[in-house]
Design goal:
Helix content: over 70%
Distance between the termini: 5 Å
Number of helices: 7
Strand content: under 5%
Length: 154
């Protein structure tokens, strides 16, 4: 069962991701129709990184406050995502398998972004993640809201 503090923390992260999307809406519109400059491509990569970090904060809240499961030191980012796709005795699955599979590309990009020089990140890779990002977020947000409103009640 989710207590109100956990629900509040998750809602705060949802709001921060919404603010991210609002702040970069002009960039999303631009890259959907034009090949971006290096600066625009780099900004898009940064948005992808921020997006997944926001989701990961939600996952960490649930891991720490609900599941209370330690994560292995290696590959913990992937393990945390997989954990959110599974139901536990304390909660239903946070994410559907379909959504979890979609997000695997974002967690992989998160790792790549953190260990690359931004000027070397190719638009071809970024575009496959940033162009569908609004619809990905819509699906993830719906599942987070359902978890808070229905799945977290017992």
């Amino acid at each position: 069962m989710l207590d109100e503090q956990v629900k509040t923390q998750i809602r705060l992260e949802i709001e921060m991701i919404e603010r991210l999307f609002a702040a970069y809406q002009p960039l999303f519109e631009l890259v959907a129709t034009e090949t971006p400059s290096l600066v625009e491509s780099t900004a898009s990569a940064s948005v992808l990184h921020s997006f997944y970090n926001g989701l990961e904060k939600v996952f960490q809240i649930i891991n720490k406050r609900v599941d209370a499961q330690p994560l292995a030191a290696d590959r913990w980012h992937q393990a945390l995502l997989e954990q959110m796709m599974a139901a536990t005795p304390e909660r239903p699955a946070l994410l559907s398998s379909e959504t979890g599979v979609m997000l695997k590309d974002y967690v992989a990009f998160r790792h790549f972004y953190r260990h690359s020089y931004s000027m070397l990140i190719e638009w071809k890779l970024v575009s496959t993640l940033v162009i569908p990002l609004p619809s990905v977020w819509s699906q993830v947000r719906a599942e987070l809201e359902a978890f808070i409103n229905e799945g977290g009640n017992g």
